[in-house]
Amino acid sequence: MPAIKTAISIDKNIFHHVEEMSQKYKLPKSQIFSQAVEYLYNKNESIELISKINNSLKDINLSEEKIKIRKTYKLFKNTINDKW
To answer: Are residues 32 and 21 in contact, defined by beta-carbon separation less than 8 angstroms?
Structure first.
């Protein structure tokens, strides 16, 4: 994958944590930063997908579904309570 060099400003403490991770896991600091950004990007995509799903569910009439569930539960309960 082609890489692009960039300069960023980050908190000194975070940089020191990344240096420690770099030494501990024997990874370049640039790879750690890249993986962190990739993780946040993927997490954001998941959050957007969940938001879209939730928004689409707002249009569904759940009261009808609840009535069907109650009827099914009563039927199931009566079946269980019958003598075999």
So the answer is: yes
How far is residue 33's CA from residue 30's CA, in Å, rounded to a whole number? 5
Instruction: Please write the tens of the pLDDT for every residue from 57-68.
Output: 777 777 777 788
User: In the numeric block, which tokens belong to residue 78?
Assistant: 């009566």
Helix (H, G, I), strand (E, B) or coil at 59: coil
**Paired tokens of 18:** 């990344």
Identify the three-state secondary structure at position 58. Answer: coil
Is residue 84 over pLDDT 60? Answer: no
How far apart, in Å, are the Cα atoms of 12 and each of 15, 17, 46, 60?
A: 5, 9, 30, 49
Of 38, 39, 32, 4, the closest CA to residue 16 belongs to 32
Residues contacting residue 31 through CB under 8 Å, at least 6 positions apart: none
The size of the chain, in residues, is 84
